[in-house]
Amino acid sequence: MSARHFGRFDALSLAAALIGWSFVSPRLPALWRTMLQAGVGGVLVRVTRTPLGLGPPRLRAGLRLGSLAALHVAGTVAATTILATVRRSMADRRPPAAAPEWLLLRIPVGTVWSEEAAFRGALMTAGSAAFGARGGRLLQACTFGLSHIADARATGEPVAATVLVTGIAGWLFGWLADRSGSLAAPMLAHLAVNEAGAIAVLAVRSSDRGILRR
Q: What is the DSSP letter of 94?
């Protein structure tokens, strides 16, 4: 089925399903959750026949734009670690898994690939077919924000702020995908956000433990 066959009901149903899944998946064992989310993303891409732009010439544009965004994100995250409030928040955050599993499996596979495939890939494709390009980008951004409600509740983060921030991030990721014509651009930016944040958390916690041992 091609994207042009998606109507508004189809696009909204997919959005609702993704939000519903965000409340179900945290109840699954961590490894199962990672693999299932990655698989769901792949299935949705195939069903919607989403053009990923992971081959030339679009891949080159995606890598170029995504790398620029990733460098900016990584620099911003690194700069914020000097703020006392940010360091305290990072020090209080408990990593969800051992560092290698978190950095090499859960983030790139269970989060970045699965979310980019599902939101900037499948949902934006279906939404654009139903509501136009800007409408599709807005639909996936709003859905992306709402899909983080369960995570915010689990970590004790403010729900409204989390939805707003992740919704804005979703809009920007969608812009990167539209601008480059490749899913590589938002994937690199998304990877930079999560990896830089995770590495900063690990570094701050390690530094604080070192100070306490002295």
A: P
**Confidence class of residue 208 from pLDDT cuts 50, 70 and 90?**
low
Containing domain of residue 200, as a range?
A: 3-213
Total number of domains constituting the chain: 1
pLDDT in tens, 111-154: 999 999 999 999 999 999 999 999 999 999 999 999 999 999 98
Q: How many helices (H) and strands (E) does the chain have?
A: 11, 0
- Indicate whether this model's pTM tops 0.85: yes
* Distant-in-sequence, close-in-space partners of 200: CB < 8 Å, separation ≥ 6: 77, 78, 81, 90
- pLDDT for the residue 204: 81
Token output for 191: 């990877």
How many C-beta atoms surround the C-beta of residue 41 within 10 A?
22
Torsion over CA: 8, 13, 14, 18 (sign): positive
